[in-house]
Structures are given as structure tokens and as C-alpha cells.
Amino acid sequence: MGGAVSTSFLLGYSGQVGAQEGDGSIHITQQVEPAQDYDPVVLNDAYSARIANHIYDGLYEFGPELEIEPKVAVGEPEVEEDGMRYIVEIEDGIEFHNGDPLTAEDVLHSFTAPVEEETDNAPTFDMIDIEASDTIDEHTVQFDLLEPYGPFPTMTLATNIVNMDLRLEEEDVDPAERSYNVDDPVGSGPYQYVDHAEGEFFDMVRWDDYWDEPLPNVEEVRWVATEDDAARTAQIRAGDTDFITGIPPADYELLDGEDGVEVYNTPSISYFYIAFNCNDGPTQEPEVRNAIDHTFSASAFIDDIIGELGENAVAPMGPSVLEEWGFPADEYAEMENEYDPEQAAEMMEGHVPDGWEPELIAPPDDIRIALMERVAARLGEMTQFGVDINPQVRSLSWGEFLDRYTTGDADDYAVYTLGWTGHNDPDAYYWALFHEENEGVTQGHYYDNSEFHQTIRDARETFDEDERFDLYDQATRMLLEDKVHIPAYSIHNSIAALPHVEDLEVHPHSSIKPRLVSDHHNVDV
């Protein structure tokens, strides 16, 4: 059986939470509607992950500075076979919300199922040797790797643990359609699923039998989404919600100066970008991609639209990762083409058809829609320079966008914009966003460059940090030269909250914002 509980006491506070200081409940308003996937094997968006991270526990989890901390695991992994084998002991006595014990079988399944079921998360685990990996006993799991993978202990091991038996009750059903994903997620985390209505709310309640400490202070949580920036700002100002995530850039100064509103703003590891269809249509040609980069200024867009809530991205990784590794950010920034529409027109000559109507697609996010509109406006102005372009901007639902951006078909898109929340390692960005193995899965540009693909493979397979640095530097320059992506921006993780929300932590990882409880903080109202 699943883990849902009675909803009667939770539903009574709908729309009232923000005004109920001290009643043990909290109302959270996100800026984007989740994709409605709550099974960690399936989910692949930050907004669903923020919810799921309270329902599930990770084998390891990220601390406030992105350091790895054991959760379900007991201490650090034992490393054997020159880094090709990791043995992890797990805590005894952990139970899922439905009373099932959490065992090594559940841990192993959480890591192998994405590959076996070919979900969007498969690239995160495709280095694991599924046949050789096994459970040693009920509380010990062994991971064998197919190939050397330097970041395995610091990235891959931070994975949420699912209930294998419940997931496989509907083994013949598409994983995305299983009730475990869409109707009744059951984990071992500090909060238990209650109820949800797509496009309306997601309710969860503190699990009073939680195995770890501390027990959350907040008893009941309702998650909603308000994608309209003005409406979200109005809600926090009126006290209709306890806090909003994703402060609208245009309203930052207003909220920062508002009595009765607390603003939190911290750099993140997010990376937002413009990507080109390198598989079909005029954007297959590097000349066209470079020309488009000459038609607008990504840096100016950031200054105009995002302001203090973000910063320019100059390479395909979060700026904090760039800084941590010491990559030459100034040199990468110089590879952004200057605004020069006349040169763009010359470069497009003979490469784009007269009256070209490129499809520019964006998910339901105001900033990314504005970015595509900025690109479209500049392309439309090319008629002044003798190039007739009529770009079409499409703002799609998450479901529509995810179905379309990986087809490689020019009728579906010439340009798309997305974001990625990696980790403190370049591989977290480069493998999923660029490697050819992930064409049609987590990347839709289909960049064809064998030297590049081998370079990032070599970078992930070595344990030598200096060698990895050199390889990622080479790969970055290839991408910026060929304009596979135009790095756009990194959004800071920001929250605006009512004053009675105490001990709120804004984590640098977008999928962990907010985290209501950990061993170093515990949100209270």
C-alpha cells in the first residue's frame, strides 16, 4: 500500500496559511509549476525535486557549501579497485512511510533503475556496471563502475532512495505514468505525501516517526506555483503566502525595501543558456550560429532584466564552479561576439533562406521567454540589413517543451533556452548537456564533433585534477567557438518571506531551495 494520509486538516488552510503565524503550517509559492513527477527515478526538473527532497532521503546529501554528507549512508564509502568499486554501508532501522524497511536492495534499485528504464536521469548513472553491482547484505551495497569516473563519490552518490517494491508493483506501466510517480510517492524523508491536484497544490505533512533528527518544526506544508511574476509579488506583499521562491527581478528593490518582508539572495550553481539546433535547418551552420550571436548582447540582457538577482554566464557551467576551479573566465567572456548586425548579415548571406521563420522555444518562465523575445526582436531587425527573418517565439508548457526540444527537427525548433543545475564539477554540466550519448535525452542540439566528445569523456575518466582542468578548458573553447550554446546567465537563489518564518536557509543548489530541515537548521513559523 502507499503512504497517503488524511487530507482533512491540511485542506482547511488553503489560501490562509500566510496569515496563520504560529499554527505549525507553511505555504510555499514557487515560480514555476512542477512537471508533476515525484519519483526520483523519473523526475528531471528542479521544481518537482524541491518537493521530492522532503519526501525522500538521499544516500548522501549536499551540505550548505555543496559538501557531501552521509544521510542513509553510514560514513564515507569504501573505495576499492583503483576507484572502480565503491562499497557503502547504510543505516539500520530506517523505514519508508508505509512501514517497509529501507534496505540495500532499495539503494541499488535507486541507482540502476534510471538506466534500466531509460528515464531522463539515465546519464547520471550510466557509468555504473549494472550487472556487477550488487548488495553484499541487507545493509551494504556495492557499486562497480564500467569506466573510471572521477566525480562519482562527490556527485552520483547524492541520490534519493526509493521504495523498490512499491515502484515495481506497476512494472509493466511506463515509469512516468506509475502511481508511485504521479499519485502516491513514498519515501523515508521527514515529510509524508498527503494529496495534490495538478496545477493547484501539493500537500505534505511531517512524518512524526521520522528515523533521523531533528524532527521538523513545521508540521504541514502546502506547495503552490504562481508563474506570473506580478501576482507572486502581490501574494507575498499581501501575506497570502509565507514565502515565494524566485523573486521577480523587476520587483527586487520593491520587496527588499518592503516592511514585513525579508529578502534572501545567494549565488547558485545554476546555468541558463541559449542552444541551437545543430542537426537540422540553417542553424546547422556555424556561420549562422555565430551570426545570431552578433545580433544581440546576452550581457546587456542580464543587465536589463535580471540585475542584482543574477550574473552573466561566460561558459557552460555555473559561475561559482568556474571560480572554484580557476578557469579563465575573462578569456571566455571575450569569446562572446560583439553586437554587430552588419557583420551578422554578411555571415548569414547564402546560409539562410529569404523569409526564414525560425522557431524559438522556451519553457513557462518569464525570464527565459523574455530572452527568446529579445533574440527574436533582434533577428527581426535584420531586415534593415537585407536579411528577411520572421522568428516565431513559442512559450510552451513543461510537458510540451520537454517533448519538443530533443527532436532535432527544425520544424520544432531552431533555438531553445533552458537551464541546468549541476554540482561543483564541470562534468555535471558537460556530460548531460553536450555528450552525444545524451542526444534526445538531456540535449537537443546534436552537436557533431568527435574531438569534443572524446575530450569530455577523457575529462570524466581521469582522477588527475590538473589533467581534468586542461581537458575542460579545451572543451569550453570548442563550444564557445562553434556557438553550440550561448551562455546567458546564472540566477541567484532568492526567497522573499514573511518575518515569522525563522531559520530559513537558501541553498546554492536550486533543487534544494528551500530545505525546511537539516542537521544545521530547522525552519519554524
Automatic annotation (TrEMBL):
<dbReference type="GO" id="GO:0042597">
    <property type="term" value="C:periplasmic space"/>
</dbReference>
<protein>
    <submittedName>
        <fullName>ABC transporter substrate-binding protein</fullName>
    </submittedName>
</protein>
<feature type="domain" description="Solute-binding protein family 5">
    <location>
        <begin position="67"/>
        <end position="438"/>
    </location>
</feature>
<dbReference type="GO" id="GO:0043190">
    <property type="term" value="C:ATP-binding cassette (ABC) transporter complex"/>
</dbReference>
<dbReference type="InterPro" id="IPR030678">
    <property type="entry name" value="Peptide/Ni-bd"/>
</dbReference>
<dbReference type="Pfam" id="PF00496">
    <property type="entry name" value="SBP_bac_5"/>
</dbReference>
<dbReference type="InterPro" id="IPR000914">
    <property type="entry name" value="SBP_5_dom"/>
</dbReference>
<comment type="similarity">
    <text>Belongs to the bacterial solute-binding protein 5 family.</text>
</comment>
<dbReference type="InterPro" id="IPR039424">
    <property type="entry name" value="SBP_5"/>
</dbReference>
<keyword id="KW-0732">Signal</keyword>
<dbReference type="GO" id="GO:0015833">
    <property type="term" value="P:peptide transport"/>
</dbReference>
<dbReference type="GO" id="GO:1904680">
    <property type="term" value="F:peptide transmembrane transporter activity"/>
</dbReference>
<keyword id="KW-0813">Transport</keyword>
